[in-house]
Amino acid sequence: MAEQATPGVLDRALAVLSCFSEDEPELSAGQLVERTGLASSTLHRLVAVLVDRGLLTRLPNRRLAVGARLWELGELSPLALRLRERAIPHLMRLYEVTGENVHLGVLDGPAERASVLYVGRVTGRRSIPTVSRAGGRGPLHTTGVGKALLSGCDDAWLQRYFGASPLLRETTHSIVDEHALRTDLAAGRARGYWSTREEMTLGNVSIAVALPSVDGLPPIALGVVVHLERADERLLSRLVQQAAKEIHSEIRSS
Prior knowledge:
By secondary structure, this protein is α+β, with helices and mostly antiparallel strands. The chain has helices at about 5-15, 30-35, 40-50, 70-75, 80-100, 145-150, 155-165, 180-190, 235-250, and strands spanning about 55-60, 65, 100-110, 115-120, 135-140, 195, 205-210, 220-225. A hairpin with a 5-residue loop joins β1 and β2 (about 65). The longest helix has 21 residues, at about 80-100. It starts with 6 loop residues before the first helix and ends with a helix.
């Protein structure tokens, strides 16, 4: 019988894999030793196993990166199979009629450190630059999809969220006061969509809606990000709402 990994081994493997980020997708063995605190000999043995299993890959420059097997496993997640794959045609249509960045995000993590996890994104040459990417994360309080996701959380969850740590100010327009943000969330519920105006990036406006809940999936929100000068909120909100209804209908039956 094959030897089963102990929780300690799994923890160490996850510690290694968690060192990689969008800003640093490639790391040396020395950097992994420094960041994990593992002994060099332990790190090298663990890396050898992760490379052999395809969870890490060695690059020509002797640095390490996330391996294809890890990507393959991630593609089996319901976020990929049930949500993103079924939503992509609708994201494309929304992009075609707006020419703007389209984001599909879910609420991820416990309230104390929750964030938006972007599971889908469509952009083009006309679209303005944004900091989001599929597979990346963003704050809840300064993004349109984040506010849409926050709006569906109950008061006990929100109390833990606001009580965890002060909200970070991304720009001078960011709403970081609890009362002001709660008021803004309530305004979004009243009009049926949520928006940010230069709260994440100067010059950008985001408009988003929350999808009704779907069994087996986390809370979902859909949004567009546009330049302030092109932000026709009434038109864009209607387009996003329609796309959200179509996506919900598609994934509800899956």
